[in-house]
Design goal:
Oligomer: single chain
Bound molecules: flavin-adenine dinucleotide
Strand content: 5-15%
Number of strands: 8
Shape: globular
Radius of gyration: 22 Å
Number of helices: 14
Distance between the termini: 19 Å
Helix content: 40-55%
Length: about 400
């Protein structure tokens, strides 16, 4: 594997840094305080053609690989934006772009991909309160009515509903023959706003740059043309979206962890407490944890690059690599953010030093889009070859093993 960057990728990184430099910490503090979508930043990202990176050129995109978005997510985060700058890169390009480019019809690609390049936002509505990590147990259903469907159900934790133009909804088709637990699951595109779809914002610890919601679908009408992929087999399509999302999250976390270390080092190099000229950065008690955090992040970054490299080659090892990358990226970045807070001391607990924002924004990603436990369960099963540890049917353990994994293999 050769991760040396092409001239185009090096200039992409410079472009990304230049965008980030226009959105200093004061901007992000304002966004967090107002709890609103970073619209000005989004417009800048659109103007610099950063959303189209993984979209085919014929639809106005960059025609690049997921690896380019990985570089953009990592470097925009490290340049000062943190997760709030990098996670928006998922909202159109991955939820909509990767999904439609890989699985949409020619008509759907023409209908949606140019809009993603131009800044249309996509929400992904998969999770429900009662089913939790067991996404195949969702209750949202698609009722066949004439040539189309009506969607009924309730989703929870759904992002960007207030600002999105499209929502990819996972629902189970009424009456679809069910041999495996995944049979009947289908993905539909709902255009927003929609009179039969309502949402209620949920309050939360971090990631206040996007709204998170409970969503009610009360007979939302969709046509045959709004179905993505084959009816009843939507689970298979999720593989591309979920792996791509996790790889970008991991890259964003690496950039944010490195940013937290940068901030901590700058502070530690000037803060004096005990004697003039003796900065706190000279104490090994602070140095070693920061050095350890840096070492962990550097190692994790290689795993993230490897996962993206495998994804771009449709290599079947991508599933295990993605799970491993996601785990080590979040573990190392949260450790870095925590050590950054410790380096700042009490100042690190205050909003004004930014490191607490990075810790709060990172913390989500040990829970969503997939939790640490489900990532480890996947590694245990698919990398180590241990038995699946959950969801075993008393009647037939074999049937459970033939069921769905919340961490798809590509
Ligand atoms: C801020 C935020 C934004 C989100 N955005 C979206 C979104 O845009 N779209 C969307 O569809 N979803 C979204 N989610 C949902 C998220 O992706 C998870 O899928 C969902 O939270 C999982 O369900 P649960 O949290 O109810 O966990 P539960 O399944 O109730 O799990 C609770 C705990 O048990 C553990 N656990 C569960 N099963 C096992 C097992 N087999 N072995 C070991 N441990 C286990 C879990 O890891 C967790 O620690 C978001 C969540 C949050 C908090």
């Amino acid at each position: 594997v050769d991760f040396s960057l092409s001239p185009e990728q090096l200039s992409l990184i410079e472009k990304v840094k230049s965008v980030a430099s226009r959105f200093p910490e004061t901007y992000w503090q304002g966004i967090v305080g107002e709890e609103r979508f970073p619209r000005e930043y989004w417009d800048a990202v659109v103007d610099e053609s950063l959303l189209g990176l993984p979209i085919p050129k014929e639809y106005g995109g960059g025609g690049g690989e997921l690896f380019d978005t990985v570089l953009a997510a990592e470097h925009v985060a490290r340049a000062g934006c943190g997760m709030s700058g990098s996670i928006p890169l998922i909202l159109g390009p991955i939820f909509g772009g990767v999904l439609i480019a890989a699985h949409g019809t020619a008509e759907q690609r023409q209908r949606y991909l140019p809009g993603i390049v131009a800044g249309e936002i996509w929400s992904g509505a998969f999770s429900e309160a009662h089913s939790g990590a067991n996404v195949t147990a969702i209750n949202t259903r698609a009722e066949q009515v004439g040539d189309g469907f009506r969607l009924h159900g309730e989703k929870k934790y759904i992002g960007v509903v207030e600002v999105a133009q499209h929502m990819a909804v996972l629902a189970r088709v009424d009456g679809f023959p069910k041999v495996r637990r995944t049979d009947g699951l289908s993905l539909f595109v709902v255009d927003l706003p929609n009179a039969d779809l309502s949402s209620e914002r949920l309050d939360k610890l971090g990631t206040r740059y996007v709204d998170t919601n409970r969503v009610v679908l009360d007979g939302v009408a969709v046509g045959e043309g709004d179905l993505i992929g084959e009816l009843g087999h939507g689970w298979d399509l999720m593989f591309d979206v979920l792996n791509a999302e996790r790889i970008i999250v991991a890259a964003a976390a690496i950039g944010t962890g490195l940013l937290a270390i940068d901030l901590a080092v700058a502070y530690a190099n000037q803060r004096e407490v005990w004697a003039e000229g003796e900065v706190i950065g000279s104490y090994q008690g602070l140095q070693f944890p920061l050095a350890e955090a840096k070492a962990r992040l550097e190692a994790a970054r290689l795993k993230v690059y490897e996962a993206a490299w495998l994804f771009d080659r449709s290599d079947e090892r991508c599933g295990v690599a993605t799970a491993t990358a996601r785990y080590v990226a979040l573990e190392s970045s949260l450790y870095a953010a925590d050590r950054a807070i410790q380096t700042f001391g009490s100042a690190g607990y205050l909003t004004e030093t930014a490191v607490e924002r990075h810790w709060r924004d990172l913390r989500l990603f040990r829970l969503a889009p997939i939790s640490d436990e489900m990532v480890l369960a996947y590694i245990a099963q698919y990398d180590l070859g241990l038995p699946r540890s959950y969801g075993r049917s008393k009647a037939s353990p074999a049937a459970a093993n033939g069921g769905a994994s919340p961490q798809p293999v590509r």
